[in-house]
Structure formats: structure tokens, C-alpha cells
Design goal:
By secondary structure, this protein is α+β, with helices and mostly antiparallel strands. The chain has seven helices and ten strands. Helix content is 31%, strand content 21%. Strand 6 and strand 7 form a beta hairpin. The structure holds zinc ion (ZN). Monomer.
């Protein structure tokens, strides 16, 4: 599943081809997770003024309205030549006068949704429960600390939920908790202040590193699977059950939490 760093890498790749471009036409394939919310033809003639991101949504800011794109479980975006033929899993094509932005999504859990702006309509609904952005100034230590104090939820589940801070998906949750030395099952409100300090630093470090890695391995074509592989190759614990812990040499453990795999070191994480 594409996580925040992949989406951010995708966003950065879209700025040059799309920012300032005028939409010529839009083609919709099979239904995605939600309806577009406007006639596709009504987007023709509008200009893309900015390419932003909120959580895992790419936000195309138009001169009138915004278009939110979510990659769902299996989606990826490509910038292609205008005459590239659509395949059976290409369900959204946005043509400008120079480029084609194409959403390829075999499982169709992705979404392309129009909203009058980022603060009302579908955008307001979809963004309502999103926590702060991890790489913006709103993600202070005190914000994280306050979020941890509010609940006994296991800390990994709290991070995955995204209500305190967005972007710590399944791979990154295992990694940041390992770096911070915190057991993934620990009730969030039992985290100590020093642990929370380490966790705050680890979240920023891991996501920053991950985006940098994606930025160096991907160019115009964003292939989520290839990207995840590149990050996993550098992961400390994720996907490494049975391998020696990099800190203590004990075998890395794996368990299920809420049907997702959690990788951790029993000895190093308290
Ligand atoms: Zn260890």
C-alpha cells in the first residue's frame, strides 16, 4: 500500500509536468472508490495552480476547486505521453496540452474526487480525522506527547490510526518504534517522556530518509512496488523476522496487531 513518503515522492514528480498546466480533457474508466463529484467535462479548461499533499491525498489545486487523488491499496500515478493507450486498469486520465496524468489501479480502492475547495465538501469530510503533518511545524514534541497521553491504545495502533500524526504506516510504525526503543504493544499513555522524545525524532528521521530514498530512486514514473522494495532493503526490523537485531543480535520477532504484521526486538524495545 502506498504510504505518505511514496505519495510525497509522487507529488514532487508531478509539480514540473502539471503546475501551471491547463486541463484539456478528463477520461474516467471503471468506478473508483467514490464518484468524481462533478461532470468530468466540467474540468476542461481549468488550470492546475499547485500540486499539494494532505496525508496520503495528492491535491491538485485548480483555479476553481480542487481534485483529490488517493492511491488506495494498489494505485500508482504516471505521467505519460498524450497518445499512450489506456490499459484495462487505467481508470482516470487527465490530459493537459503536453502531458497525460494517469491513475493505474487494478484493485480500484483508489479515488479521484472533486471538491469546491480543501475546506468544504468532500475534502472537508476526507480530511476531518487526519492528524498533523509529520514534516511540518505543527508536529511538535508537545503535540505528540499530548496525543499519547489521551489513550491506552497500544502505541503502534495509535500511530497507524493517523489521528495524532499522519504518515506513519505499517512499515514505518515498526521502524520508528524500534529506533525509539518502545514496545509496540505499550499502552500509549504509559510512554515515558524520554521515549516520546525519541519517538518524535524517529518519526521525522524515518519519513525524511524514506522520502529522500524515493526521490533518488524514482524519476517521472512512480512505481510504488519498486519504491517499497528500496525502503525495505534499508529497514532495521520490518520484514526481517528471525534475522539478528542490529543492536543486540537477538532474532527479530513478528506478531499480528489488528491483522497487520509488527516487527520488533523483544530485548531492545520496552
Ligand atoms: Zn535488539
Amino acid at each position: 500500500m502506498p504510504e505518505l513518503p511514496e505519495v510525497e515522492v509522487t507529488r514532487r514528480g508531478l509539480i514540473a509536468p502539471l503546475q501551471g498546466a491547463r486541463i484539456a480533457s478528463v477520461r474516467m474508466g471503471k468506478p473508483l472508490r467514490w464518484p468524481l463529484g462533478i461532470e468530468a467535462a466540467a474540468l476542461a479548461g481549468r488550470s492546475i495552480t499547485e500540486v499539494q499533499r494532505r496525508g496520503k491525498y495528492i491535491v491538485l489545486v485548480l483555479d476553481q476547486g480542487v481534485v483529490l487523488i488517493h492511491l488506495g491499496m494498489s494505485g500508482s500515478l504516471q505521467v505519460s505521453q498524450l497518445d499512450a493507450p489506456a490499459g484495462p486498469h487505467d481508470h482516470f486520465d487527465l490530459f493537459t496540452d503536453q502531458h497525460l496524468l494517469r491513475l493505474h489501479d487494478p484493485r480500484r480502492f483508489g479515488a479521484v474526487v472533486w471538491s469546491p475547495d480543501a475546506y468544504s465538501g468532500m475534502a472537508a469530510k476526507l480530511f476531518a480525522n487526519l492528524g498533523v503533518e509529520p514534516l511540518e511545524s505543527g508536529f511538535s514534541f508537545e503535540h505528540l506527547w499530548a496525543g499519547l497521553q489521551k489513550t491506552r491504545t497500544p502505541i503502534k495502533q495509535l500511530l497507524l490510526g493517523g489521528q495524532v500524526v499522519v504518515g506513519v504506516g505499517n512499515i514505518y510504525a515498526s521502524e520508528v518504534l524500534f529506533l525509539a526503543g518502545i514496545a509496540p504493544t505499550k499502552p500509549a499513555n504509559q510512554t515515558t517522556r524520554p521515549q516520546a522524545r525519541r519517538l518524535h525524532a524517529a518519526i521525522v528521521e524515518v519519513l525524511t530518509r524514506s522520502i529522500a530514498l524515493g526521490g533518488s530512486t524514482l524519476r517521472d514514473f512512480v512505481q510504488v512496488d519498486g519504491y517499497a522494495g528500496a525502503f525495505q532493503a534499508q529497514a532495521s526490523v520490518y520484514g526481517r523476522a528471525g534475522e539478528p537485531c542490529q543492536q543486540c543480535g537477538q532474532p527479530v520477532q513478528v506478531m499480528k496487531q489488528g491483522q497487520r504484521s509488527t516487527y520488533y526486538c523483544k530485548r531492545c524495545q520496552k
